[in-house]
Amino acid sequence: MTKEEHEVAVLGAPQGSRPVMSTVVNIQPETAVPDHIVWSLFNTLFFNVCCLGFVAFTYSVKSRDRKMVKDVIGAQSYASTAKCLNIAALVLGLLGTIGFIVLLVFLVPAVYHAVGQSMWGRRGY
Asked: Where do the TM regions start and end (predicted)?
């Protein structure tokens, strides 16, 4: 007699009178809702045109709060608003920065030249 046969003989065959009960637990995967909080913080610090960066940061925090209480629809709504405000703040901030650089490149030499000409004319040279 093999060891397995001996164990079956001693312990007895498995009881088949009751059905085997099992429990299935379904775990819902968390929906990834980006809250854009880092982007909003960047815009708040560097491109806060008309306070759009700060408002976007506020909506990002609201989105994160909604995500913590498992309100996915509310979190998506606030995140979408934060994304739109971040895009607007970034575009306006970049346009303002580029406009300021262009203004400096073209206006400063012209003013310097005009001031130099007026001073040169006063001396009578």
From this structure: 37-61, 87-112
Note the pLDDT tens digit of each residue in 74-109. 999 999 999 999 999 999 999 999 999 999 999 888
77 close to 97: Cβ distance less than 8 angstroms: no
Does residue 67 belong to any structural domain of this protein?
A: yes
| Helix/strand number for the chain, H first, E second | 4, 0
Tell me the C-alpha distance between 111 and 46, whole Å: 29
Contact (CB, 8 A) for 37 and 60: yes
User: How buried is residue 41: exposed, middle or buried, by Cβ count under 10 Å (0-12/13-18/19+)?
Assistant: middle
Q: How many CA atoms lie within 13 A of 102 on its CB side?
A: 6
d(CA 57, CA 47): 12
Is 90 a domain residue?
Answer: yes
3-state secondary structure of 110: helix
- Domain containing 73 equals 34-115
**Number of domains composing the chain:** 1
